[in-house]
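Hello Y.,

Per our agreement to keep a running log of every chain we model this quarter, I'm adding this entry. I've kept the format consistent with earlier entries: sequence first, then predicted structure.
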Amino acid sequence: SKHPIAKFLCHYIEVHFPQVVRNKVEILKFKENLGSGVEGIVDGRKVEIKRISKITQGTSIGVFVDEAKVLEIGLSDKLRDDSFQATKRLKELGLTPFILSGDNQAVVERIGESLEILPKHRFSEISPEKKNKIIKEIIIRVSDLDMASAKEKVK
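Predicted structure for the entry above:
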């Protein structure tokens, strides 16, 4: 998976459990379920790694083997040190910052408040597909504005 959480987990396993990396296993029928997790067959057993709940401070990820949960990992986000300054700069440029996040509403509200982003500009539990759709719509609207501005200049 290309998801940041998946990359983190892979790196963590490589560093803390090198024996797992040395004993590479074949994964059959690998499937990525965008926004929720991955699954595949390992040694004839169905293995899934997926989001199981959205907790107040983050997300809980579960590892399942043949439908039985064998591990649960709690994850939480931390704002980057430069987030407040970047948001402030966007506002100084006359831009409106938004949050489009797959995280739960409580997390997005907490982050939105700390960055002073208006509640109407905070969107939680957005799937990757929906984020892409929203971003494409924004690009189309900006392109339309650029075209209108260019036509105005030509007159």
